[in-house]
Amino acid sequence: MRPYRFLFDECVRDAAEYFPKARVISRANIKLKDGASDEAVVEAAYKAEAIIVTANGKDFIRIMDRFLKKQMVKFCRDLNGLVVIPNPIQQHVLRRAAERMTFDGEKITWYDVWRRDLYVKISPQGIPRVVRFRRCYYCEKHEST
Fold this sequence. Notes:
- The strands form two sheets. Strands 1-2-3-6-7 form a five-stranded mixed β-sheet, with helices on both faces.
- The chain is 33% helix and 17% strand.
- It is globular.
- The chain is an alpha/beta fold.
C-alpha cells in the first residue's frame, strides 16, 4: 500500500467519509487533541507524513509557509500537501474533484498530491485548482547546488 494518508482539520471532520477510508488518520491515533491549533495540525501532519484537509485554506497556507521557512540545515521540512474543500461538504463535489485533478497538464491522484506536496483547492462546483507549494529551506539549498 502506498504511504499517503489524510489528516482532517476539525472544521471538515465529516468529509473523511468521502475519502479512502484506509487512508484517513484518526486524530486520536496521532495524539492530536480536539481544539488543537492549526500550527499543531501542521506539525502533526508533518510527523505523520499526511495530506491536510481543511476548509480554512488561507490560515493553513500562511502557517505552512512559516513552517517551511524554518531553516533546518540538515533536515527536510517539506510537507505532504493541502486540500481545501468547500463548506458545506458535498459528496458529489469531492468525488468529481478527485476525478478531475491535473497538474502540469497531467492527470494526478491523491498519491501525487502527497508525493509532490501539492495544494489542491476545490471549488463548490467540484473544479480543483492545483499548484505546487514552495520547497523547504533544506530542499531549496540542495536543489541550487
